[in-house]
Amino acid sequence: MATLRDIKRRIKAVKNTSQITKAMKMVAAAKLRKAQGRMLELRPYSDKIYEVLGNLSKAGDSEAHPLLLKRHPKTVEVVVFTSDRGLCGAFNSNIIKAAVSFVRELKAKELQVSINAVGRKARDYYKRRDIALRQVLTGISGKVNYQLARTIAGDIMENYTAETFDEVYLVYNEFKNVVSQQVKVVKLLPFEAGAPAAEPAAQPETVDYIFEPSAAGLYRVIIPKAVEIKVFRALLESQTSEEASRMTAMENASKNAEEMIQNMTLVANKVRQATITRELMDIVGGVEALKK
Amino acid sequence: MDKLKLEIVTPRGAVFSGEVEEVHASGSEGDFGVLPGHAPLMTMLRVGALVARADGKPNYFFVGSGFAEVSWKGMIILADSAERAEDIDVARAMAAKQRAEERLAKIENLDFVRAQSALERAVARIRVAEEHAHR
């Protein structure tokens, strides 16, 4: 049986841990709020760019843009968005599980798969299994900005145009709310320009736009931008989910620590009482012996 | 008088949203003005100023490159960056201008395009801020 001192030492250790998890929870909560704000900020822009793109494609005259071109798929790129840091519950394992099963599906269709790992956790996973990565990007924690999305999207678009791969999918965690994140697999390229969300019915069917400099020229600028926005969105969603996931995980850890402390305190008290009882018995026994 | 619904959005959020009477923007093919009832138009924008007149008062904006769409619904500006003139940090823009100029002065500079566009943005910011101050 553990001595009183052992138990006390363990209680102290657990208390220290719970202090750390509590602090991490607070930090995650603050970061979550910030990330959520940035997601909200991006929303009007991404909504509008799809609206404009929809109008542009409806206006016809869509000279085929290389990023819209559908090719018969031979190689498929899968972009896996994970985090750099752990301690965020099932966040990374969920995303990797989804990515692995998606890759298996693709391979069943006899397609080549190239993997683009975003975040240290994805890189570590694939490295451990000796799976070649086409592209790796780590050190993104707290550095998610538009420039980063641009780097990722730029590399993807370049390789797509060079026909390194024929389709691109993003695998990331979508932020639903603080307690629920959902893994999403989204097609990035070939880009589907049309069919944005519900169109207002009042809009006249064909609009004769004046294009400056030209529809093709506008396409050349807007489509890469829309691709960048899609990547940026995935990054932000992933980051927000990560922080939400970490917050929940740390909350649970703190709760568990509290419970452990309670249980151990109970045991400690029992041990203490038993010791006192034993000592009392000794004294009483001694006194009785002297009396005789 | 007819009004035009103007929205200026960037990846960092909406900068302006409201009814205006007139908009002047710098398009890639030249500056242009938009009044309510303008024909549908889509154009690229270059780095420059945007003036929106609301209730007779001009509002000055800095707009980084992007595009504009004018339709029966109104005008949408999708810009990489945009700021109200009063929000422009002139000191920062000045510093950016100087930095860009220094970089451009070096011959071995590899990132010429980036430095140049940085300079362009800084100069446009300063100009917009000054216009706003002197109106």
Describe the structure.
The complex is a heterodimer of chains A (292) and B (135). In chain A, helix 3 (120-128) links the parallel strand 2 (112-118) and strand 3. In chain A, helix 1 (4-58) packs antiparallel against helix 5 and helix 4 (146-161) packs across helix 5 (215-291). The two termini of chain A are 35 Å apart. Chain A has a 5-stranded mixed beta sheet, sandwiched between helices. Chain A is an alpha/beta fold and 292 residues long. Chain A folds into 2 domains: 4-25 and 252-291, ATP synthase, gamma subunit, helix hairpin domain (Helix Hairpins); 28-248, Pyruvate Kinase, Chain: A, domain 1 (3-Layer(aba) Sandwich). Chain A is built from 5 helices and 6 strands; from the N terminus they run H-E-H-E-H-E-H-E-E-E-H. Chain B is an alpha+beta fold and 135 residues long. Chain B has 2 domains: 4-85, F0F1 ATP synthase delta/epsilon subunit, N-terminal (ATP Synthase, domain 1), CATH 2.60.15; 89-134, Up-down Bundle (Single alpha-helices involved in coiled-coils or other helix-helix interfaces). In chain B, strands 1, 2, 3, 4, 5, 6, 7, 8 and 9 form a 9-stranded mixed beta sheet that branches. In chain B, helix 1 (90-105) packs antiparallel against helix 2 (112-134). The model of chain B has no long low-confidence stretch (mean pLDDT 87). Chain A binds chain B through residues 38, 40-42, 44-45, 48-49, 51-52, 55-56, 59, 146, 203-204, 207-213, 215, 217-218, 221-222, 225, 229, 232, and chain B through 7, 9-14, 27-29, 39-44, 67, 69, 71-73, 76, 78.
Ordered list of secondary-structure elements with their pairings:
The complex is a heterodimer of chains A (292) and B (135).
Chain A lengths: L3 H55 L16 E7 L9 H18 L3 E7 L1 H9 L6 E3 L8 H16 L5 E11 L2 E10 L20 E3 L2 H77 L1
Parallel strand pairs in A: 1-2, 1-4, 2-3
Antiparallel strand pairs in A: 4-5
Helix pairs in contact in A: 1-5, 4-5
Chain B lengths: L3 E7 L2 E8 L1 E6 L2 E5 L6 E14 L2 E7 L2 E6 L2 E6 L2 E3 L5 H16 L6 H23 L1
Parallel strand pairs in B: 1-8
Antiparallel strand pairs in B: 1-2, 3-4, 3-5, 5-6, 5-7, 6-9, 7-8
Helix pairs in contact in B: 1-2
